[in-house]
Design brief:
The protein is mainly α. Helices cover 79% and strands 0% of the residues. The radius of gyration is 20 Å and the shape is elongated.
């Protein structure tokens, strides 16, 4: 019941139900869910306490480590978040969880490395994420790897990644259920076309840059 209310965004009711479940002897998952509810409500102290209690009860819970990494990211403690992601990767390799995919863990570590300007580490993690067979590919993984390539001056690979991100977005637009979601995806594609255009111009590929800008302009007109 608490989990259903958490998914529905009824955070106070979710916390109350999950607390009742914990008082009645519920296990690790209840602490993780209550931690997620506290994190979504902005009560980071109680969220941290619940994730810590979950890990005290199961030191190999990849989900608890991942959620605590998300919390530490919100707290801008990137070193702690990186340590949690490393532990989540190790835990999930030993005891795979149906709740989390290795692809997502590598992508999150790639993002942390990107923010910490560890460009090579970010590229390696995003590449590992894309190589995993499970789950779905996010265009952000390609786009963020492109940022790392750009920082290293590897513009050609960055352009290829922006093209891949746009291709994934084009596929996602076909299945997007709402106009708002389609417009959001289109706006991202426009942004990636613009970045690709700038990189092509830096490489002297004027015609390719013009083509990218024309594609961005076409989307801009469609979005008004």
């Amino acid at each position: 019941n608490g989990k259903a209310k958490l998914v529905a965004g009824q955070l106070e009711d979710a916390i109350a139900d999950l607390t009742a479940a914990i008082d009645a002897g519920a296990g690790v998952d209840a602490y993780i869910l209550r931690g997620e509810a506290y994190m979504q409500s902005g009560d980071y102290r109680n969220a941290m306490e619940n994730f810590n209690m979950a890990l005290e009860r199961d030191s190999e819970s990849a989900v608890a480590y991942y959620d605590r990494a998300l919390l530490n990211t919100r707290l801008e403690d990137y070193n702690a978040a990186l340590n949690d992601i490393n532990n989540a990767l190790a835990a999930n390799a030993q005891k795979p969880s149906p709740m989390i995919q290795m692809r997502d863990l590598y992508a999150k570590r790639g993002q942390l490395n990107l923010w910490m300007k560890n460009w090579q580490g970010a590229i390696a993690d995003y590449t590992n994420s894309l190589a995993r067979p499970e789950g779905t590919v996010s265009p952000s993984v390609y786009a963020e790897r492109a940022e790392a390539y750009t920082a290293l001056g590897n513009y050609a690979d960055a352009i290829n990644d922006y093209s891949s991100a746009i291709r994934v977005i084009s596929e996602q637009i076909q299945g997007a259920p709402t106009i708002e979601e389609r417009e959001s995806l289109s706006s991202r594609a426009m942004n990636y076309f613009e970045k690709s255009a700038a990189l092509n111009l830096n490489l002297g590929n004027v015609d390719a840059s013009r083509t990218d800008l024309e594609s961005a302009y076409t989307i801009a007109v469609a979005l008004n």
